[in-house]
UniProtKB/TrEMBL annotation:
Residues 25-34 have a biased composition (Basic residues). This is Uncharacterized protein. Residues 15-38, 174-196 are annotated as: Disordered. Residues 178-187 have a biased composition (Polar residues).
Length: 208
């Protein structure tokens, strides 16, 4: 006697399985329906920090040509991130532990790159400030030295230009001897034809 097994078909023409004959993959189906985080802000703090450690540990061990250059903006390297870095990092992570989408990795890489560039900017700014400050100190030092030098020159020049002054005691009289090259009419005791004109000229000067 031949046993005939009836097969129930659904409207699409495929076999309908009863509860006993369905694949026992409830766990897989459950996992596929689990919610995956698409943004870093959605993740619990502990999970986020653990992912960050694993992610950047793995990224640091990727080939040099896949590393981001902090001298360049993130936008200029966006294709490298989307097409190479993110897909490769997704393969290194345990996605059963880290229920995330690619958007989370992209966001973390972006944040890290921006942080590094900010630190680089601050460092360069600090170095420039130090150079400027050092330059100002050198300029001030040079100005100070110049002022001291000019003061020295001015002081000594002024002293050199001063007329020699002699102070005599009232009780003393010192007769000065005229230089040998002095004209005879300038010497004491002159009694020549220029005596009167010279005396008049001196008198006029004294009366002014």
């Amino acid at each position: 006697m031949v046993n005939i097994q009836l097969i129930e078909l659904n409207p699409e023409g495929t076999q309908i399985l009863d509860s006993d004959s369905r694949p026992r993959d409830g766990k897989k189906r459950k996992k596929s329906k689990e919610r995956r985080y698409q943004h870093v802000s959605e993740m619990p703090k502990d999970l986020r920090e653990a992912l960050r450690r694993d992610l950047f540990w793995n990224q640091a061990r990727m080939p040099q040509e896949t590393q981001l250059d902090i001298e360049k903006t993130f936008e200029l390297q966006k294709d490298l991130v989307v097409k190479t870095i993110v897909p490769n990092l997704m393969k290194t992570l345990d996605l059963d532990t880290y229920t995330i989408g690619e958007g989370v990795i992209y966001e973390m890489i972006y944040q890290r790159h921006r942080h590094k560039r900010d630190n680089l900017w601050v460092k360069n700014k600090s170095e420039n400030d130090i150079k400027k400050e050092t330059g100002w100190k050198h300029q001030n030092s040079r100005r100070s030295e110049l002022r001291r030098f000019l003061y020295y020159v001015d002081s000594n020049t002024t002293k050199g230009d001063k007329k020699r002054e002699r102070v005599y005691k009232p009780s003393e009289y010192v007769k000065e001897t005229a230089p040998n090259s002095a004209p005879s009419w300038t010497k004491s005791g002159y009694d020549g034809p220029l005596k009167n004109p010279v005396a008049k000229a001196i008198s006029k000067l004294q009366n002014k």
